[in-house]
Amino acid sequence: MTRDDEERGGSRKKWPACSNRREQYLELLVFLFLILPSLVFSFFAVRQGNMSFMLISSAAILRDLSLVSLILFFIWRNNEPAIAIGWTVRNIRKEIGIGLWLFLPFFFVTSVLEGLLHKAGLSVPSTPLPALISEKGIAEFTLAFFMVITVALAEETIFRGYLILRFRAVTSSPAAAVLLSAVIFSLGHGYEGTASVVTIGIMGAVLGLVYLWRESLIAPIVMHFLQDFIGIVLIPLLKQFKFIP
Fold first, then answer.
1. Which of 29, 110, 201, 207 is paired with 2 by a 20 to 30 Å CA distance?
2. Segment (H or E) for 239
3. How far apart are CA 227 and CA 224, in angstroms?
4. Which tens digit of pLDDT belongs to each residue from 153-210?
């Protein structure tokens, strides 16, 4: 049996179940208790103009890395393989290609959807957002690039790999797992307005379906990275050099 076969077998739940449903349920509650309050508070976020990009991006990187570390501890404690949360290099070139191929329709549809939701009357931010995208020099753009990479890797591990794994275990429904993880994924964007929250929730559901289809996080990570890279790095960089107004 090849390594690929072993990993595919692992992705079909052949590893030993070292924790029962009650233990998984309690573990999930602990994790949700850590992340849900800050996500919900995003709906009531105070827009502070004096928060620097360096501070906000550094905090985001450290937060996501700490949550991934906690997930890895849970997986290690339960004697589950990394493939359980979608961590695999199986067919990496093919998976990257699928992520690139899916990104264009993904980006186009979500952009159109958000525009339609705005026209339908769903809310947009009523006051200026924090200076999340305010890079001015090479240090800021470099940090922004590393933040985009970290966020794509970490958030796909958190919201697709881990939460779908645990929600599927406690609900016995892949569809419910995708829906619940997408709803939680969208909560952290309350400060962007209702239209963005709905759009991001749908994006999360699509990424979840791609993850279940591919049994790997690689394609969702590629799609997530490109989505953030365009808005956080590429567009500000083009504006910096006056290529776009």
1. 207
2. helix 235-240
3. 5
4. 999 999 999 999 999 999 999 999 999 999 999 988 776 778 889 999 999 999 999 9
